[in-house]
């Protein structure tokens, strides 16, 4: 799948009387890792949820790979999203968690049950191929030894790797992460930053990564977009944003010496 570019124009969102997004213009370039950085409550998650199709904008447009996605349901946007809260299927093994997206997208519904499916050679071969793909990605994420465990038997960092694996395995054209490391402890967080960047590079998938943590944005991003109070205040390379803040509010948030 070609990594997609994204074009956001005049995007606004109101909840009741609250203007949560105010005429946001933003481009995400094909294949880049873009960090959306801003304080809690500035509208980052709302923007991601609109990209994913979980929320409709009050005004403005979103185009992915040159096409408006207005009214296109989440399942038809070819987007994967990782949440802060993992959201793994608790009753399924790690292997089954990671196989599910490929089973849903490749096998007809009547053959998705393991027992029914294995009766037919074609379905059996497809399941075997899916199993191999899961093992390959699990190796890259260093969770290959955990494939037969249930989520309850994993540490926080291991759950997060599984959640990332499950999201990315379909090779979506757009990958969205909403503060995916915020529930991990500091040591694991910095280790995972490097691994996420390496994985994103290897897959080349266009990625929007939401964080309120400036260190995370500085160390991971190709480009940083600083949001405050529903607006985009600045976009640029990490060092440029840090050393040349264009608003007092950005400088204050980043702690840039005046
Ligand atoms: P961030 O992710 O940057 O912390 P959010 O996008 O979650 O910010 O929220 C931005 C603002 O919108 C917050 O004030 C939040 O309370 C409000 N908000 C988010 N979702 C809803 C909703 N479904 N209904 C009402 N207000 C909401
Ligand atoms: Mg949020």
Automatic annotation (TrEMBL):
The keyword Secreted does not apply. Residues 6-254 form the ABC transporter domain. Keywords: ATP-binding, Nucleotide-binding, Sugar transport, Transport. It comes from the Bacteria. One of its GO terms (molecular function) is ATP binding. Belongs to the ABC transporter superfamily. This is Multiple sugar transport system ATP-binding protein. It comes from Labrys wisconsinensis. The chain holds residues 1 to 258 of 402 of the full protein.
